[in-house]
Every structure is written in structure tokens, then in C-alpha cells.
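Reminder: ligand-aware prediction takes two inputs, not one.
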Amino acid sequence: MDREKREIRKRIGKLVDPCRVTRGKKFRLKEFDPGDTGGLGSDQKPAARELLEKGIRWLAEEQDKLYAQDRHSLLLLFQAMDAAGKDGTIRHVMSGVNPQGCQVFSFKQPSMEELDHDYLWRCQKCLPERGRIGIFNRSYYEEVLVVRAHPELLGRQKLPPGLVTKGIWKERLDDIAGFERYLGRQGTTVLKFFLHVSRKEQKRRFLERLDQPEKNWKFSPADIGERGYWDDYMAAYEDAIRRTASREAPWFVVPADNKWYTRLVVVAAIVEALWKLDLAYPGIDAARRKEIAAARRSLMLEKR
Ligand code: ATP
Ligand code: MG
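Here is what comes back for the chain with adenosine-5'-triphosphate:
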């Protein structure tokens, strides 16, 4: 690796390291500040924007190799409270990549058909093929977040009553960790992003949605109601991260009170993970080289 690349990797690492959780045991959400900007002041915003743009270009380069190689796949999963900036962050991540190799799925309240299956069913159908990047805007984690904050939702899931015990959240989190381990062993790299916005900043963004007519469409009265469950959600996030963070499927707790910083960290984490895969265009063997030479000769011989 040349010096410049090493230097860039170091810079990227510095951004991502504080957010990465690979061992849940010691994880405490309160140690993570939603307002953190990694020591970058607002005067460094232009430099941050430049790095973000570079990151998006590197992401595109790596995606091209991922697609050509057709071995690995990447699953990016986004969870957050409302107005934390999931949509905007996903838009940025997507802005440089080839749409053919990337798919976004949003998971809302489950339909009647979905409720007739186990909860992983609808997500499993949307997993990325080899060579692809899959993005989940919300995911099976809702089953241990919103459903945990509102346990009455379990009633709609038609589970045999004997299976609904006090241990259900731990069981679900064990199953999720097992599922992600399985994906890793199948060549899918799973990266999980929690966009960590503060309650105060959420209020500011909600007020903005109410005050600006062009943002009114984003407002939903139910979102205000969910603020009343804030602490339940935070406790559920903490437990989910504690029980499912691993080296193979890390969580990234991304400060989300400053959108420019959120996007930079997310793109940096994705680029870093792709670099670690050490992707390369598939090599060609002697027979294929001959074929290419023959095709070239035949084209050159054509008169028009
Ligand atoms: P935005 O508000 O930015 O458009 P969103 O992801 O919040 O995006 P909404 O349609 O507002 O989309 O909300 C989807 C809702 O569906 C969320 O409140 C989420 O908690 C809920 N949801 C998702 N999965 C489940 C699930 N498995 N069980 C119950 N509720 C779920
Ligand atoms: Mg919403």
C-alpha cells in the first residue's frame, strides 16, 4: 500500500473507531454523545465535505469490484429514532453507487401476510445477492425496539402463547445474533448503523417540519407520541447493541445531531469495511486471454 493510501486509511479509521462497537458486554449508550463531531469544528466543514465526496467516489470504486467479483455481499442496516436522518444518509451513500448493484428496502408496520410468518421472513427475502449492496431502512431490529417499547404489538403476531415469555427479548436478540453470524459465514458483511440523535435535536427537527410548509409532509402526529417512550427506546437500543455487536457484524453508534458529520462517518465506515475485504477484479486465465486476443483480431479484420 502506498503512503498516501495509508494516510487516508488512518484518517478514515480515526473517524470510525470511536463509533464502532464489536463487543457488546461493555457497551453503555450514555457514553456516546449525539452531538459529537470528532473534534471537527464548523470551520472544518468544507474539508469534511471534501472527504465525504472522496469517500463516495471510493465507495463507487469498491462497489464496482464487489459486483465484478460476485463473491461477497454487503448488508447495511439503518436504525434510528424519527428525524435522525436515515433517509438523507441513505441518499448520500447511494449517490455515487451504481443502482444496478444496490437495493434499498424500507420496513414499516408488518402486513397481515407478513404477520403470518416468522419475523425474519420479510427481511430474508430482501437480502443482497452476491456482489450487491443491500440497504435496510429499519429492519428485523424493530422486533426488539418498537415491539419492546409497545409489547401489545406482540399480540398481533399470532405466536403460540407458551412462547411469549419474559425471556422473549433476549431470545430474539440471540436469534438475531445467530442469524447475522450465519450471514457472515455465507460471505455477507453486515454493518449496523444506529443514528444516535438527541431528544432535544429531534424536537428542533420536528418543529422545523411543522414550521416549514415544504417539510410538512414529513410530519406524522404519531412521531410526537413516540417521544413519550424515549427512555424505553434507548434502553431497548442499548440492550440490542449489547447482545448483537460482534466483530463480524459490528454496530456503529453514529452521532446524529449534526448531519454533515453523520454522513461522513457512515460513508467512512462503509468504505473501510469494503477496503478490508480486499476486493479485486477477477483475474483471467490463459484460455480467456486467448479468447480476448482472437476477438480483438476478428474486430480489426472487419472492413467497417
Ligand atoms: P419516514 O418517517 O422518514 O418516512 P419511517 O421509517 O419512520 O420513515 P414510517 O412509515 O413513518 O417510516 O414508519 C414506519 C413505522 O413502522 C415505524 O414507526 C416503525 O417503528 C414501524 N415498524 C417497522 N417495523 C415494525 C415491526 N416489525 N412491528 C411494528 N412496527 C414496525
Ligand atoms: Mg416516520
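The beta strands are 20-21, 73-80, 102-106, 133-137, 188-196, 251-255. Residues 82, 220, 223 surround magnesium ion (ligand 2) (CB under 6 Å). We will return to this case in the review session.
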